[in-house]
């Protein structure tokens, strides 16, 4: 499911240096344990041009695939998001984005409501119909799977597109 295209990382800046007109920070791998991220932040602050710097903020991020990251997001949250995206790639990030940053909702969707990957909603509707109903050959040309897919998206399913002809379908809950 959904390949990860880039390293998942955050740029953490020293606020004491920033407030004194100097840029000091470090790119940190976010797909590691939260305590390891904190240790790297501490190392970055210790190397600050401002003595005894303590405050930091996330000024940039990469590889989160659309999942929102705020300037003062907690490190445990960042590590959890990064781990989910590392496991599920682009699909993971886009699911988190779909749920407005709610990792629990994204996790529930992928674990309990995932219906599969399809080229389109029409393909999904056709497969579902053919698996559940025997359609007489004389009616094949009268079935509008495009319309069925659109109708399903109104109330029954939602889709997350991760690439051209790569649509991940989830049952609405």
Summarize this, please?
The chain is α+β, with helices and mostly antiparallel strands and 173 residues long. It is built from six helices and six strands. The protein folds into two domains: 104 residues, no CATH class; 58 residues, Arc Repressor Mutant, subunit A.
Per-chain topology:
Layout: E1 9-14, H1 15-19, E2 25-29, H2 34-46, E3 56-62, H3 75-98, H4 103-112, E4 114-118, H5 121-132, H6 145-155, E5 157-163, E6 166-171
For this entry, give a set of tags.
three-stranded antiparallel sheet; 43% helix; rod-shaped; Arc Repressor Mutant, subunit A; 173 residues; alpha+beta
How would you explain this protein's 3D organization?
This protein has 173 residues and is an alpha+beta fold. The protein has two domains: 9-112, no CATH class; 114-171, Arc Repressor Mutant, subunit A (Orthogonal Bundle). Helix content is 43%, strand content 21%. It is built from six helices and six strands. It has helices at residues 15-19, 34-46, 75-98, 103-112, 121-132, 145-155; strands spanning 9-14, 25-29, 56-62, 114-118, 157-163, 166-171. The strands form two sheets. Strands 2-1-3 form a three-stranded antiparallel sheet. The chain has a three-stranded antiparallel sheet with strand order 4-6-5, with helices on both faces. A hairpin with a 2-residue loop joins strand 5 (157-163) and strand 6. Helix 2 (34-46) crosses helix 3 (75-98). It is rod-shaped, with a radius of gyration of 22 Å. The mean pLDDT is 94.
